[in-house]
Amino acid sequence: MAAWPERRYLFAEYCRALPPHPAEAALDAGQRARFDRAMAYRTPPEPDRWPLDTPGAF
Fold this sequence. Notes:
- There is one protein chain.
- By secondary structure, the protein is an all-alpha fold.
- The protein has two helices and no strands.
- The longest helix has 12 residues, at 29-40.
- The protein starts with 9 loop residues before the first helix and ends in an 18-residue tail after the last helix.
């Protein structure tokens, strides 16, 4: 994904188009909040190993 930032992730698009799982209707408010936080979580990006301002980068 770092090499092609505009690349579409087709499987994620397919999953978003599916109807919600029936078990989601059984969640109470606290469980729903935790579920929503878990679904919104994204791993932090890794730092650039070779930033261009590194001495000797070129």
